[in-house]
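Forum > Structural Biology > Help requests

Title: Can anyone predict the 3D structure of DYW domain-containing protein?

Hi all, first post here. I have the sequence for DYW domain-containing protein but no way to get a structure on my laptop. I'd be grateful if someone could post the structure tokens.
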Amino acid sequence: MASLPSLAISGTPHKLDADVRKLSPASVPLEKRLSYQRSPPTAEGSWEASLQPLDAREALALLREGTGVESAFYVPLLQQCIETGSLPDAQVIHAHIIKTGTHEETFVSTSLVDVYMKCGAPDHARKLFDTLPRRNVVTWTALITGYIRNSEPANAILVFVRLLESGCYPTNYTLGAVLSACCALYSIELGRQVHGYMVKYGIESETSMGNSLCSLYSKCRSLDSSVKAFRRIPNKNVISWTTIISASGDNGDTELGLSLFADMLLEDVVPNEYTLTSALSLCCMVQDLSLGKQIHSFCIKFGCESQLPVKNSIMYLYLKCEEIDEARRLFNEMDTVSLITWNAMIAGHSQMMNLAKDDMTAHRSGFEALKVFQKLNRSGKKPDLYSFSSILTVCSGLLAIEQGEQIHAQTIKSGYLSDVVVSSALVNMYNKCGCIDDATKAFAEMSTRTLISWTCMLTGYSQHGRSKEAIQLFEDMRLVGVRPNQITFVGVLSACSHAGMVDEAEYYFNMMKNEYGIKPVMDHYACMVDMFVRQGRLEDAFAFVKKMDFEPNEIIWSILIAGCRSHGNVDLGFYAAERLLELKPKGIETYMLLLNMYISAERWQDVSRVRKLMKDENIGSIRDRSWISIKDKVYFFRANDRSHRQSSEMYALLESLLQKATSLGHVPYKSVELSDKEDEENSVGSAAATHHSERLAIAFGLINMTEGTTIRVVKNITMCRDCHNSVKFFSILTKREIILRDSKRLHRFRDGRCSCGDFGALLL
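Reply #1:
Sure, ran it for you. Structure tokens for DYW domain-containing protein below:
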């Protein structure tokens, strides 16, 4: 409990504060004596008056039976209940208020409603409110704001309706609270009705009301309405500008947000730390380091640079713009490193994994995030749900299952595993690392599940070739009332595609459109086309493409070309190739697909045409890279890489495995592809590289990892058909599970089968 500082008194009298003029008990008013206690005199004759607040029960016990008490006496006691969150003390005071008869005073009863709400007892507050003989607008407002505080915005709206029906007029503060309830409900319809009420009574133009309206429309994803509300504020303050700048970022219009920030400066409005953090966030979104540095200068100019939120935003900006050294310098210079700062460093490195220009940089960022998380654990601070969710996402990207399992144990110990954000990230981590059984267990143990949780698990089943489990989970999700979204249906349709369940796919495709009103996007069409291609129904695949609401993209045509090659329909393949070339694709793997098809058909004129287009579009040479993590170290490999000290062992092992695989029926498939040499111009070889990077990474893992350990490899491009087929045989010969994630999907090889449902037959 908070206490006043001790006052050492000896010798001549000292003046105390205005509340306690003299130290004689008889001279102190009853209310003051009830509110404070003192320590006894010291042995030397001087004494210390240590004034400390009495708790509610002690204060009330000092009152004599029948003593008259003014209502103001209860104010500090009720405030103590709010500060300590003590509902039992509030109830004791309530009983005493009734006993002394002061409960009939509106001021006291309103204070009690407020206290019950702030102590987390809305039922007590409502029961008291309903028994009050008199209520003023402050009483109504206390109940409304209390419901919002206790995450019951719907009840707040109902109370507001009753307020209007009672003939009481709301204040600006009341209306601001009601708009907050509309925000919490994401109800733009209710918000517009409240807005209409404000227009009717001419208070829309008041600055605080305009700010609230601006925030409401932003939260409800109506940026245009938010901007209009902002424009109608005649006297805009820094809160007004900050609200609309933040709203622009929240709704994805960074250009508008930065333009408004410039307008604000031209209006000579001095930004505060919240304005500057919002502007820095906009720079992060567009990765505009130059502008970000200018705003950094503004932070220094306005004296906000030392503010922790501003420092965090600046540091995060440098991280996202890959200015690692500068971000680390800011981090190391911080006198106080809050948990928010640690989380910003972890999340920043996690974001850099997705934004990195090459795979080595991405993995370097991921391992840096793991190091920061380790330092956080050693700092004495405890990670929170944001720390855990970010670092689990990093583990997903790195296929770092060992670290992921350690973090899983830490979430259990800390109690954060019960949080739905953390548990969903854990399910995703196990899915991405190829541990579908562990993901299933983590999902089953979740106490609460969101749409993200269900979709993550469903997608995991689909990627691991467990189509029946995916569809059953989808039906379970619908049964408990969770509404699927676009991504959920991508997972369902992908599961149907893997299993060749054409009727079911068409059923769910129509359900998506008709029952849930979800307009199909390219990913949904790609799943359907992939399904027809897998079944060899090429005519149906092309017919389905013609019924699309928009033009097919590079992915759709690539699937069709691969299917035509696999099933020997050359004419349809050439037709699809022509449509693909019209799009001038940017993906180098797409050009490999086209070159392989044209060269195998000996259409040399088309080969020249593709090569010319590659040159015109500045398509670089392919860089085949794979990597494997062993004991916290990452080992990178290129195609035909002989730079490793164990190269001779690796190549010997691969030759042995391929020889045995051939005896089991493996037929090597040779393709034509681009050179892997970084210093060469685009070139076409006559045969595939002897050993692509993933084979070398797998061989390295087989040599250096204990027998029976799962091999996990990441590859920066799509596996070729020959490597896919050969790794299936490797899984039989070594009796190992081999998990490989390429640029397109996850491949889990076990006992000669792949979880992709032999999607490898459609590869390059």
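Confidence is low (pLDDT under 50) at residues 1-52, 674-688. The two ends are 71 Å apart (CA to CA).
Shout if anything looks off.
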